[in-house]
Amino acid sequence: MGGFQFLVIFILHAIIFSPYTAAQQKYLGNAVLGCERFNETVPSSAVLYTCTAHHHHLSTCKAFLIFRSQPPPYNSVSSISSLLSADPGEVSSINKISREAILPLNKELIVPVNCSCSCSGLYYQANTSYAIPSGGTTYFTAANNTFQGLSSCSALLRENVYRPQDLVPGMNLSVPLRCACPTRNQTENGVKFLVSYLVIWGDDVSRISNQFGVSKSSVANANGISSEDTLFPFTTLLIPLQIEPSESQTKIYKAVGAEDSPKEKHKRSYKSIWIGIGAGISLAILCFTVFILIRGKTDDQALGKAENGKEKWELPEHVRDQFPAVYEYEELEEATENFSLEKRLSSSVYAGILGGKLSAIKAVKEDSSSSEVKVLSKINHCNVIRLRGICLHLGVSYHVFEFMANGSLKEWLLQNDGPEVHTWNNRIRIALDVADGLNYIHNFTDPPFVHNNINSGSILLNEHLRAKIADFRLARSSAQNNGTGNLCPKTDVYAFGVVLLELITGREEVKRVVQIMEGRNGEESEIQCVLDPRLQVKHPLGFIIDQTELAMRLIKLSAACMADEPANRPTASEVVSSLMNIQSDVQNLETWSM
């Protein structure tokens, strides 16, 4: 091939495929409706929107979902907010609808969510959970019927330990929702928010762009498509916005011809019939295909088998909806090399590989074990430690947890080597993870819980420095503690304030910082003196960037959390909102130092 021919082909290739390579995400159409496990080393937008590409510069942001009201129970702000683990006050305010008002069928709601890179660092997601209400629920129906395509069957498979055929009523599924943060290029062009919009039959880029008052090219570029490409129902499209969406951009989708005159109904009846038949046939074919794919899976990973082929999912009937696995003591001995010193992580915790996964195996006295197991069996959230299984042996209960490579937050703050300790971004993201986990257990579990032991030792960090709340031995239902002492969600908020101070100062002793908060030593020099010196940010020209204002915002938030009167402390949800605003400024600050 001649040089000129090669150049022409190269240019044509660049012209044809440039929208895809420069895209925020690549729209994959019906691929999101598949139900398969993807290679973890190559993230796919068919699972969730990815956050590993070089052009993603925000790890956490405020994002928005579009959800359409359904028949009961999901026909009010309160019920939809609970389903999506969103703040009902925010949802009510942005949509200008009262919390308990009954919504007409197919009324669009704007739902603000905290969107962040997953604990694995691969995907953007907002986290919620779903208790399977009845038999017949599958990963596919949960993703596409209940959550209307805001999750995917593949994402649910990835996030949960249960095999598709083992789902039964009462199981609590972790549900990652499709959201994303703006790229650096989008931010530079004024984009502040991304909306995950649910595509319906007959949608196209032009109509959706008009609805949100943005250009077709911006929507097309954000999704790696052309403005003429076909869109498929049960999929999502990212809408880039410079300001928050408003209720004026939402619609109520009524049945075709619902309010037409009899004459108009007659004219459109045949069209409606054929549209309905076509949609029905398409959906039937799709469901049948997915069913065959699910039933036809025989690989060991999909079946959740250990390397020796032993089935790890057959649990006693009465506990099958509570524990992902029940292990034999001999399996733990083999995994830990007979609980050898080489496998020992602390006085009662050992590392071992079970079911092909590195796990932490913790020995607990049986009488203090049941409460933690009972609580964790009701919780499934990215920022709460995952209980993979249990084993009872000679009066000792062994809990098998996911392995957290960076240990406790307390240990991590004490280390002085490693550049990851030195960044504001990591510190604030850890705080956000903890606040997000607290918000979940306070507001979105049934019943709500109070952790009652939040400290830097009960917060663990994985290999991506994502924080997870652990040690639920003292956790109690907040509903059962009304009028009993001072135990309430604000107890956890106070403890979080102390943890936030440790993140700011890098040390456990925070009395001097408390004095500053109380106004006795509020000079800038004093503030700089208590900050962790490892958090100094240098400008490319060499001088140190003043961080007093940022530090004061964090100190004030910590002070609010530690108010003497619980009623004066913010809720965990309010803490999340405050930290998200601070996080945005932190990321901008560290961009200057790169």
Tell me about this structure:
By secondary structure, the chain is α+β, with helices and mostly antiparallel strands. It folds into four domains: 24-249, no CATH class; 269-296; 323-402, 2-Layer Sandwich (Phosphorylase Kinase, domain 1); 409-592, Transferase(Phosphotransferase) domain 1 (Transferase(Phosphotransferase), domain 1), CATH 1.10.510.10. Helices cover 36% and strands 14% of the residues. It is built from 19 helices and 14 strands. It has helices at 3-21, 77-83, 88-95, 139-146, 153-159, 184-188, 205-212, 216-223, 262-296, 300-303, 329-335, 370-376, 409-414, 424-443, 489-505, 511-517, 524-530, 548-561, 572-592, and strands spanning 60-68, 108-117, 124-131, 172-177, 193-198, 236-241, 349-354, 357-365, 387-393, 396-402, 449-450, 459-461, 467-469, 476-477. The strands form four sheets. Strands 4-3-2-1-5-6 form a six-stranded mixed beta sheet. Helix 18 runs antiparallel to helix 19. Mean pLDDT is 79; it is low at 1-22 and 255-322.
